[in-house]
Amino acid sequence: MTTNDGYSLRLTDQLERVRTTWPGGPWEWDGRFDCAVSTVGKAQEASAREALAAVLPSVWTAARLAEAPAAIQELCARVGGLRGQQLVFSAELGEGALAYCLWWPWGSGANFSARVGAASGGEDDLSLLVRSALAVK
Fold this sequence. Notes:
Radius of gyration: 14 Å
Number of domains: 1
Number of helices: 4
Largest sheet: 6 strands, antiparallel
Low-confidence stretches: none
Structural class: alpha+beta
């Protein structure tokens, strides 16, 4: 794995902050989307969104996706788009790197999935950093 020390450190710092304030279940790896995933219930929704927004301050909805940076639009296209109440939280890390969370409410509205990942815009594989920072087994 090659990574840029500048945005690697920012990514690790931001995701460790998410981990320490996360109200949901443990983080697991979702190989379909190359992201860490955790679930929270409706009672934890506000605190979970607060933990994400503290480090991933840009929030994108289906209605605003056309205004999002190209990297966010490409991410959403890769995962099947944004529908309904789905959101993407994001933060630019510099040098084209991006940290993000796909926030997907379940059909019943009783639970939410948070899928956290990172992309470098280049050849760097950031999945190991995501896994380490969120203590994914």
